[in-house]
Design a protein that fits this description.
This protein has nine helices and 22 strands. The chain is an alpha+beta fold. It has two domains: 141 residues, Adenine-n6-DNA-methyltransferase TaqI, Chain A, domain 2 (Alpha-Beta Complex), CATH 3.90.220; 142 residues, Alpha-Beta Complex (Adenine-n6-DNA-methyltransferase TaqI, Chain A, domain 2). The strands form eight sheets. It has a four-stranded antiparallel β-sheet. It has a four-stranded antiparallel β-sheet with strand order 13-21-18-19, with helices on one face. A three-stranded antiparallel β-sheet has the order 3-6-9, with no helix packed on it. Strand 7 and strand 8 form a beta hairpin. The longest helix is centred in the C-terminal third of the chain and has 44 residues. The radius of gyration is 28 Å and the shape is elongated.
């Protein structure tokens, strides 16, 4: 069905529910995500802990709009579980006129980027810091809104496609999780008992017998920039960060890394930030928070070790044997890491496991690359349906 645009004032009315703040009361607080992603719960607000004299109370089914962030998609329909929550006066609420606007169709409008763009174009320059959405101007925005029966039909269609896209996304994420778990299992072999490991030539030894810390400190020259790498959590390897400007960093020295080294993050060790340095990162620089090690080539493969260290049982053991790895504010020292004992298979078995792990890693990376494609698929479906409404 093709329809023309209608002003929002034809289907919505401003309906703010102000609440006088009581210093002795506590208020369940909500926030609104950008990009049409709905509401989220925040910590309760103590009345004595805010300078606001009033708060705006939410009611299920109303449209809530962030005055400063609406052009970024901070617009949502209030679901039942947020009924009675509160927001600051920076948020406006509107009620759909009975028989004019279907709540499900409205929720999909909130996820439509064209809606946010129309908010921006109707409220001046969104880059202006003090720019705010005004209720009257917001209600003048035009959107493709058909009759109520057509809205319900469109809502059902979009729900069907949304569920398909969400199922596809969930399957991809689950496959990625299984790939990661399989990689760790290939490295650590939790299916083998200790006697079975010994029979296959596995030995238990502290890491200090299998590798040593190495460092190539380089004095910082304020006239130079230094390529910088970081570590991802959960054994997902290294990544390129913005270069370090020698004239702006407070560091006096940086450590230059070499391909093939084992590297970890003192601060993120509990999150699995262990990796080996790939060839393309040879010569990059890191701070002392990312120590580097040279493994003994005849005994230990750095890539195998980076995966082995993702084992939940080993990380738990390491957390209890070292000072507070289980506490997020504490760091894993080099000494604690080197004292940690691992079960090490013969090098040939490490290399066989590594080859299989590399295949799983490629599959995981492909699934990671598909995630934005799935998001685009949903937005293109939403766009296409809205286009059919406007002809």
């Amino acid at each position: 069905m093709s329809v023309g645009d209608r002003r929002l004032r034809e289907v919505l009315t401003l309906d703010v529910d102000p609440v006088q703040v009581d210093a002795t009361a506590r208020y369940p607080l909500a926030g609104v995500y950008n990009s049409g992603r709905g509401l989220f719960k925040k910590n309760d607000l103590a009345g004595f802990g805010t300078s606001y004299k009033k708060l705006h109370r939410l009611r299920a089914g109303r449209l809530v709009v962030s005055r400063p962030q609406a052009f970024k998609g901070a617009i949502a329909v209030v679901p039942p579980e947020f009924d009675g929550f509160h927001l600051s006066p920076e948020f406006l609420t509107f009620s759909p006129l009975e028989g004019e606007l279907d709540a499900r169709f409205l929720s999909y409008l909130c996820a439509w980027p064209e809606f946010w763009q129309r908010v921006a174009s109707g409220h001046g320059n969104p880059g202006t810091f003090r720019e705010r959405v005004h209720a009257g101007r917001f209600l003048e925005i035009r959107l493709p809104i058909p009759d109520i029966d057509s809205q319900r039909e469109a809502g059902q269609t979009l729900t069907f496609y949304r569920q398909k896209v969400e199922a596809l996304d969930a399957s991809a994420k689950r496959a990625k999780e299984l790939s990661e778990a399989a990689a760790v299992a290939l490295a650590s072999r939790p299916d083998l008992s200790e006697p079975e490991k010994k029979a296959r030539g596995w030995t238990k030894a502290p890491l200090r017998r299998l590798m040593e810390q190495v460092a190539h400190p380089v004095p910082v020259d304020p006239t130079k920039t230094y390529p910088n790498l970081g570590l991802r959590r959960s054994g997902r390897g290294v990544f390129r960060k913005g270069s370090i400007d020698g004239s702006r960093t407070s560091a006096t020295t940086l450590n230059r890394v070499s391909a093939g080294q084992f590297i970890y993050s003192k601060n993120l060790a509990f999150d699995g930030a262990y990796a080996h340095v790939p060839t393309e990162f040879d010569g990059f620089f890191v701070s002392g928070e990312l120590p580097t090690f040279q493994t003994h080539a005849a005994d230990l493969d750095a890539r195998w070790l980076a995966t082995y260290m993702q084992s939940e049982s080993d990380r738990t053991e390491l957390g209890t044997s070292s000072k507070g790895l289980s506490r997020r504010r504490q760091r894993l020292s080099v000494g604690s890491l080197l004292d940690f004992e691992i079960w090490k298979p013969p090098l040939a078995e490490q290399l066989r496991a590594r080859r299989k792990i590399q295949v799983l890693t490629r599959h995981r990376n492909l699934r990671t690359e598909s995630e934005p494609v799935v998001a685009v698929l949903w937005l293109s479906t939403l766009d296409e349906l809205m286009a059919t409404l406007t002809g």
